[in-house]
C-alpha cells in the first residue's frame, strides 16, 4: 500500500473529467428535449395549406384577421373567422370562448388548436396582437401633460 503511480492518477483524472462531461452533456440534451414541446412557434396559413404542420397535434397559427369574416354563432360563444398571411392564403378558424378585448378584424391574431379533417382550424385559445403604438390611457395623459410643459417652457 504505497504511493499510486503518476500514470494511474492521470487516468483517474481523465476518467473523472470524461464522466463529468458526459453527465453535463446528457443533462443539456434532456433539458433541450423538455423545452422542445414548450416552445410555441406559430405557422402561417400558407404553411398549413402546404401541409407543413404537425398531424394530430396541437399547434399555433398566426395571421391577419380577414375583414368581414368574423361571425358569431347563435350560442353567443362560438366565433368563426378567417386569417390570412402575405400570400393571401386564408385559413378558416372556429373558436368557442370569449375573444380577447384587442381582437379585431384587420389586426394580427395567433390561435392555438388543431386542424380538423374539414380543413377548419379549431382553436382552443386565441391571442390578439396589439398595436405597438398602444398607450395606456393614464400614460397618454402624462405624455400630453409633459408635451404641454415642454411647449410652455419654450415660450
Notes on the structure:
- This protein is an alpha+beta fold and 155 residues long.
- Helix content is 35%, strand content 26%.
- A five-stranded mixed beta barrel has the order 2-4-5-7-6.
- A hairpin with a 5-residue loop joins β4 and β5 (90-96).
- The longest helix has 31 residues, at 6-36.
- It is elongated and about 85 Å long.
- 13% of the residues are buried.
- The mean pLDDT is 82.
What quaternary form is this?
single chain
Mean pLDDT: 82
What is the CATH domain class of the largest domain?
A: Mainly Beta
| Cα radius of gyration in angstroms | 28 Å
Based on secondary structure, the structural category is: alpha+beta
Key terms:
155 residues, alpha+beta, OB fold (Dihydrolipoamide Acetyltransferase, E2P), 2 domains, five-stranded mixed barrel, 3 helices, 7 strands
Summarize the model shown.
Helix content is 35%, strand content 26%. It is an alpha+beta fold and 155 residues long. A 5-stranded mixed β-barrel has the order 2-4-5-7-6.
Give the topology.
Elements: H1 6-36, E1 42-43, H2 45-49, E2 59-65, E3 71-72, E4 78-84, E5 90-96, E6 108-115, E7 121-128, H3 137-154
Parallel strand pairs: 1-2, 5-7
Antiparallel strand pairs: 2-4, 2-6, 3-4, 4-5, 6-7
